[in-house]
Structure formats: structure tokens, C-alpha cells
Amino acid sequence: QVQLVESGGGLVQAGGSLRLSCTASGNFLMISRMGWYRQAPGKQREWIATITDSSTNYPDSVKGRFTISRDNAKNTVYLQSNSLKPEDTAVYYCNADLFVNGRTHNYWGQGTQVTVSS
After folding, report:
1. How many CB atoms lie within 10 A of CB 32?
2. What's the DSSP call for residue 43?
């Protein structure tokens, strides 16, 4: 069974930083794309970062403040979040495309809460 497990969320003051981690485990052959999304109360889930072997991408809302990176040897993706604002408060979800049983499947983690106080 394939799982994505996030960690690193918590409470931080505005202007502070957090580093989120997400590790993939289970029976998969390879990981292609990995990314982070977030969902604030009463809002739709929002894409905030993607990483492949060749590129990273961010929406304007987090560009310059958030950095996505990955450690392929550890099957782990990270999200370094700096200059946090109260509006960054949300549940942050890891998402990944994993090659399992001969084809690519999309998986979600369970989410980790990030709360930014003003």
C-alpha cells in the first residue's frame, strides 16, 4: 500500500518560517511529479508548488516566499515556507504521481495544519 505522510506543521507567528516534509512509502517503482496544496476553512483547495526532475513551479501568491525541494533517495518532498502571513493558515496537503503496477497513480497525504498568528 502506498502512503504519503506529511509532517512539520504547527503554529507560527506572522513573519516566521516552517518547513513541511512529505515522505512516500510503499510498493512503487518511481515518483514523477510531487507537489503541495493547501485548503483554508471555507475555501477551495489551492495549488501552491510543484516539482519534477527538471523544474519547479509556484503560483504568484507564494512565489518568492515558498520553496519546494525533493530528496529522491528519501522519497521525500519539502516545502520551506518563509515570511508567513495569517492568510497562509490552512491545512497543507502533499500530492504525488507514483508509478505503481505498471501505470501512474495520483496520491494525497492526510494533511498537516499550519496556523499563522498575527
Report:
1. 11
2. S
Using DSSP, state whether 17 is helix, strand or coil.
Answer: coil
| Cell numbers found for residue 61 | 501568491
| Beta bridge mates, 78 | 21, 69
pLDDT band at 62 (very low <50, low <70, confident <90, very high): very high
CB atoms within 10 A of CB 99: 13
Reported as half-sphere exposure (CB side, CA atoms, 13 A), residue 112 has a value of 20
Q: Average model confidence (pLDDT) for the chain?
A: 96
- At residue 29, does pLDDT exceed 90? no
- Give me the phi and psi of 54, to 5 degrees please: -120, -10
Longest pairwise C-alpha distance within the chain: 48
